[in-house]
């Protein structure tokens, strides 16, 4: 496989992790601090099974780390690029949507 094509495949997989709104919400919840799964579940408002499935995807991709403390499992973001990308794109989209609502740029 062409080296450039391989890089693009990896980039697509990387961005694919951000293509799910639940994972974006989880990353937002974890971007400031480490949290136990039950707190993520409470903040997001979905089932623990659903949150755990998404956390496992992020864990396997190396975006978050986990540690056990007693019966709780804690997660934290270890890839700061994800936080920066999410924040930048979210601000850009929100600003564009607000601008559309206010008629700015038309």
Number of strands: 3
The overall average pLDDT, rounded, is 88
Q: Uncertain spans, ≥5 residues at pLDDT below 50?
A: none
Strand-pairing-aware structural class:
alpha+beta
Helical content, roughly? Answer: 55-70%
Strand order of the largest sheet: 1-3-2
Binned strand content: 5-15%
Rounded to an integer in angstroms, the radius of gyration calculated over CA atoms is 16 Å
Number of helical regions? 5
Task: Give helix and strand order, one letter per element, not per position.
Answer: HHEHHEEH
Task: Based on Cα principal axes, name the global outline.
Answer: globular
Distance between the termini: 45 Å
The profile of the biggest β sheet is:
3 strands, antiparallel
In short:
This protein has 106 residues and is α+β, with helices and mostly antiparallel strands.
Written description of the protein model:
With 106 residues, the protein is of the alpha+beta class. 64% of the residues lie in helices and 13% in strands. The chain contains 5 helices and 3 strands, in the order H-H-E-H-H-E-E-H. It has helices at residues 3-16, 21-30, 37-44, 48-60, 80-102, and strands at residues 35-36, 64-69, 72-77. Strand 2 and strand 3 form a beta hairpin. The longest helix has 23 residues, at 80-102. The mean pLDDT is 88.
């Amino acid at each position: 496989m062409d080296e450039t094509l391989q890089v693009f495949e990896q980039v697509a997989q990387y961005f694919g992790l951000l293509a799910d709104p639940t994972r974006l919400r989880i990353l937002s919840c974890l971007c400031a601090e480490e949290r136990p799964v039950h707190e993520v579940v409470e903040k997001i408002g979905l089932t623990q099974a659903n949150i755990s499935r998404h956390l496992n995807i992020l864990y396997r991709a190396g975006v978050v780390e986990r540690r056990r403390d007693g019966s709780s499992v804690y997660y934290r973001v270890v890839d700061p690029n994800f936080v920066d990308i999410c924040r930048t794109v979210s601000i850009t989209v929100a600003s564009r949507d607000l601008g559309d609502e206010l008629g700015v740029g038309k």
